[in-house]
């Protein structure tokens, strides 16, 4: 399949006048694309009102529908918000608003943020802007779709086991999963608090960078990510077109000045993942125990929640307590002298919706859970990660690589991705399925 050559402008390189034009048009663009993409549950009336703080300078953004504001109560992927007590003004949104960002609206998500494909059985769900027959990834599905389509420059999501990185892969955008605990999650839906992180999606890392600083000011001076260790066995286990694209991305990172080495990491990932699943399932059912008999939730999700009942308190506690030793072992045996590890976001190509819909004859539980196979261990460790486009699979759908860094080096990972993206344009393409609806915006780089 031919990949379109049309591109969207880079906010970070655009002039003040061009940024103002993008902000002014963002609500209209979101509304024009919404009938095809279903990315939003609510779109603001606008127009953009300039702020005194120019850190984000009117950057249009969207937020996953799991964050509360003074005038928005989230539904969290359900048909209504009945029974939820999430209210107030989420700290992550307050920080973005105070820094001058412009909220365009709230985006669709999977039920309770507990489904990795983007499919939702009880509420409208987002469509992949590259091909609507394929999943957009979940659970931050609408956020990724809104970014990929150019409706917003930035979107807020959450990541408990890949919920930012998987949509970044499927939709061809860049996603940042934060170091656990470094971004305030108050007034947001919890799923498994020991694994839950808040993060961001944007087309490119240079557009992420100022917002990452707003949400997670660096505790120490930035240091360049210069040494990358590739988890070669994870790369080789991936489907061939995923593996090829990721190798292209690794080559581009090396061309940007990083030193590349290889190791094997699958056995280590699988050992960590056993604890990740204990914590995810054990905490999810404890967090949402009242939902087990809630018929607003699809029976499949209630069954998934109920799996956590088999995890007793002692097992859950033991897995939580293993974090420190697992993290230390990963740094010593996998990272070694490297600053970050590289591996695919997903070992498989983006599936079609029919492969992840439990009511479909083509449903494959194996492919559904393979979506997060390479992501969950990062949440268990509490480490930061960034996922970014590195090419396309054999059906013309995006492929992403992820870099997993040491705790607190969030900004350094973003900086490396930005450095690579200065020489590549995988992140800049207009998705195939919306080419007829997109009017290219004029890019006006500052002199």
Can you describe what's shown?
With 447 residues, the chain is α/β, with parallel strands linked by helices. It has a single domain (11-437), classed as Amidase signature (AS) domain (Amidase signature (AS) enzymes). Helix content is 35%, strand content 14%. The protein has 15 helices and 11 strands. It has helices spanning 16-37, 91-98, 141-148, 165-171, 205-215, 232-237, 240-255, 266-287, 299-306, 313-321, 323-335, 353-356, 365-370, 376-381, 410-421, and strands at residues 40-43, 60-64, 102-107, 154-159, 174-177, 197-202, 227-231, 259-263, 340-344, 385-392, 398-405. Strands 1-3-2-4-6-5-10-11-9-7-8 form an 11-stranded mixed beta sheet, with helices on both faces. Strand 2, helix 2 and strand 3 form a beta-alpha-beta unit. Helix 5 runs antiparallel to helix 15 and helix 8 crosses helix 10 (313-321). The chain starts with 15 loop residues before the first helix and ends in a 26-residue tail after the last helix.
């Amino acid at each position: 399949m031919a990949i379109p050559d049309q591109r969207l402008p880079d906010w970070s390189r655009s002039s003040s006048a061009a940024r103002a034009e993008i902000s002014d048009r963002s609500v209209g663009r979101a509304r024009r694309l919404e009938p095809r993409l279903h990315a939003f549950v609510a779109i603001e009336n606008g127009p953009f009102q300039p702020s005194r703080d120019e850190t984000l300078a009117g950057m249009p953004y969207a937020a996953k529908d799991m964050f509360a504001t003074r005038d928005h109560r989230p539904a969290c992927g359900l048909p209504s918000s009945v029974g939820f007590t999430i209210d107030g003004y989420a700290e992550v949104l307050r920080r973005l608003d105070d820094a001058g960002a412009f909220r365009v609206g709230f985006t669709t998500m999977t039920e309770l943020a507990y489904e990795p494909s983007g499919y939702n059985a009880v509420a409208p769900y987002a469509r992949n802007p590259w091909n609507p027959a394929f999943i957009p990834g979940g659970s931050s599905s609408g956020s990724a779709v809104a970014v990929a389509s150019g409706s917003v420059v930035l979107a807020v999501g959450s990541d408990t086991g890949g919920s930012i990185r998987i949509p970044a892969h499927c939709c061809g955008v860049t996603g940042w999963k934060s170091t656990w605990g470094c971004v305030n999650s108050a007034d947001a839906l919890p799923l498994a608090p020991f694994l839950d992180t808040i993060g961001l999606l944007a087309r490119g890392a240079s557009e992420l960078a100022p917002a990452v600083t707003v949400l997670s000011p660096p505790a120490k001076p930035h240091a360049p990510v210069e040494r990358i260790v590739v988890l070669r066995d994870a790369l080789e286990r991936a489907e061939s077109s995923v593996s090829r694209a990721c190798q292209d991305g690794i080559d581009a990172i090396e061309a940007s000045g990083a030193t590349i080495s290889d190791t094997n990491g699958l056995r280590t990932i699988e050992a960590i993942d056993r604890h990740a699943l204990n914590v995810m399932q054990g905490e999810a059912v404890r967090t949402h125990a009242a939902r087990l008999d809630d018929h607003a939730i699809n029976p499949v999700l209630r069954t998934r929640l109920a799996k956590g009942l088999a995890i007793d308190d002692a097992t859950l506690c033991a897995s939580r307590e293993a974090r420190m030793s697992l993290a230390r072992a990963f740094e010593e045996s996998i990272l070694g002298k490297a600053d970050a590890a590289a591996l695919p976001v997903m070992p498989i190509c983006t599936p079609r919706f029919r492969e992840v819909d439990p009511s479909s004859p083509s449903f494959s539980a194996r492919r559904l859970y393979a979506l997060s196979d390479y992501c969950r261990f990062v949440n268990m460790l509490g480490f930061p990660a960034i996922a970014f486009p590195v090419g396309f699979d054999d059906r013309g759908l995006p492929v992403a690589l992820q870099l997993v860094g040491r705790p607190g080096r969030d900004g350094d990972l973003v900086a490396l991705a930005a450095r690579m993206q200065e020489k590549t344009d995988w992140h800049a393409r207009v998705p195939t399925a919306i080419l007829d609806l997109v009017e290219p915006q004029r890019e006006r780089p500052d002199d």
